Amino acid sequence: MALIQKNIWTIFYILLLCGIGFLGIVSYAKWNNVREHYADDQINLVKLVGNATHSLLLSQEMILDVLGKQVLRDKDPRILDELLLLNPSVVAFGFVDVDGNYRYVNTKFDKAKLPNLRQNPLTKESFEYTLTQKSMVLGRTYYIAASGRWGIPIRKSVVDDSGKIMGVMTAGLSVEGAFKIYTDRLSLSEYNKVTLIRERDRFVQFQSASREISKEIYENPLPEVFLNALMDAIVQRYAVSKDDIKTSGRIYTASARDVTGEKIQFALKYDPRYALWILSDIDETQITREFMNHFFGYILLFVGVHVVLFILFKIISDAENKRRADLVFQATHDSLTHLPNRAYFQQYIHDWMGENAPPFSLLYFDLDHFKNVNDSFGHHFGDLLLIEFSRRLLEVKTPESIAIRQGGDEFLLLSYVTDDHELLAQAEKIMQEISKPYRIKQFNFVVGASIGIAKYPEHAQSVDMLLRAADIAMYEAKKYKNSVRLFAASMQEGYLNRVMMEHMLRQALEKGELYVAYQPQMDRNGIMYGVEALARWQSAELGLVPPDQFIPVAEASGLMPKLGDFILKKTLEEMQRFQEALDIRFQVSINISIKQFMEANFLKKLTREIQKTKLDNLAICLEITESLFIEDIDYLLPLLKKIREMGLYISMDDFGTGYSSLNILRKLPIDELKIDKSFIDTLIEDVTAEKMVQNIITIGKNLELAILAEGVETKAQEEKLLHLGCDRFQGYFYAKPLTYDALQTFVEEQKRH
């Protein structure tokens, strides 16, 4: 007994030392994590502020350029007043000749009282510098007495058709107007500020923070030693030159000391067009303070855990045998489902694979769409679903089988059944039971599973190879959802190709190899009323990869939300630019995947992207598939209604191939039904297909929905669809998916005809 107690307390002291070491490792990792967290926040903030500021200044530069030429041509200052009303972020406009004299100003200003910009000490350098530059130049931030606001002078040289400088168009950009929108609300907190610094003389153009900023900061340049310290810190950390910092367009983070000598963590980016530094800095004491809050929590947890361990080890010294059994159970069983766990499998699988052991089968389960439950309803619901899944699996499995939770939503079943027919029958029986709806509190979940089966020793002779074979079969089953697949050697090549494709697709997203093509959608009169955005992949290694090859890989590998975000953002950006450039308005249809819809922050992300591009909501149509409503109609209906309330259209894609009942269709807030291409392909020669199309059109008309046929490739198909009452058309008969430039040509030809 004394020996047992000695060993137990030896273990306790070892655990104590390990705990101290672990505490040190965790604390060090947390320190780095906190710093990286703040650095990431600052990078995102600088990127956002930098892009917003650049866009603002670029738009103002364009206004000054156009306005200057018009004033020079018309000699009429009234346009300045009209534009001032349309541009509240600008305090005043003025046209100054090359000698610095005001020629035209807003009517509320007396130009006779305005100083000569070439003679005024405060404006002389900036004005003369403007005459040497093609792009807009920012002057020193100053108080505009006439308007009672702080402003930033913006100046743009105006040239005639021969390129001769005729003067300078100048304006006062209100700090409390335009910049406030982009920066005041974007500082991280009172410990953070964002500063725009003019590179050539170190004057602050604007500073944004949650706390009040003294306007005295605009009156004197920042110390040269401060900016040099920032540069030196970046050079030392990234091993780049100071010129590289300006030309790379990258956002750099490092630590240095601010103008007061306090240590700061900062993020810095340079805007070469306007010679501006965008600087975000955080007082390092804030980082230390947050780390200490976590550290004290670790200490309390450490002390609490080891106090509990002390008590437990004291109890163990009096009941060693019982405790030993409990520990073995805990180590080899899942705490949530109480099934044997991965450790159990690794420990006892060799008993199944011994020299004289009989053959057996390994069934590999993976729940379909389980991640959506966790993301949308929380891990508590996910845990309850796993418990119910485990209960069903135990009820339906054969007595000699062993069910194991491999981890997450993956389960294993070891069975001595090896006959293919009997094995598949057993798997189908299990599938039917576990695919029934799960009632978790007030919600119903239809999850389903994919099952891959590998046999020992037929398919593999080692644990790792057996697991891999079952995993490959399971991924093959996932292609068809709620299905079972036995491993076959031919799957191995497909698995390796899928892994390679997934790796290259991840790189493609980073390299910018993906782009968006647009297929025109026509009305009954042959006029384009909209386009559908379609993802395309031009791989440097594989060439043009068809969507039917990389989209399934994206869905299976979890890349679909990221790919969907790219398509959404790219489409909105390009179509906003396209419609403005051609002064045309048409509908833009964007496919939204199931996994995008099931993301908890989907609506917020969608709203943010629409607001960012300022594309008219009424011109956007979201395309969803019928299979979406297998997920959870009760969850999706409110989401679709919110989208509809935003003014967006909703189209049901591939209608007729899914499972939507008329009762569900009647409830959905949709505007359009898209007839699947499979019906259009055989429309002419197949009476059944024609009747199906006619029924879909009738259903849509009764529900007051627009009907679009996709995949129209011949004149005969078009005429048949027109006869049946179809409203809209899409397919190769009109145009293939077009690049941005090709779409522009298509639209221009439409206008001419």
Average pLDDT level: 85
Strand content: 15-25%
CATH class of the domain at 501-752: Alpha Beta
Q: What is the CATH superfamily of the domain at 501-752?
A: EAL domain
Which percent bin holds the helix content?
A: 40-55%
**First-to-last CA distance:** 99 Å
Strands of the biggest beta sheet: in what spatial order? 19-20-22-23-24-25-26-27
Radius of gyration: 34 Å
Structural class: alpha+beta
CATH level-3 fold name of the domain at 501-752? TIM Barrel
| Main β-sheet description | 8 strands, mixed, barrel
* Beta-strand segment tally: 27
Overall spatial form: flat
How many alpha or pi helices? 25
**Gross CATH architecture of the domain at 501-752:** Alpha-Beta Barrel
Q: Unreliable stretches, pLDDT < 50, 5 or more residues?
A: none
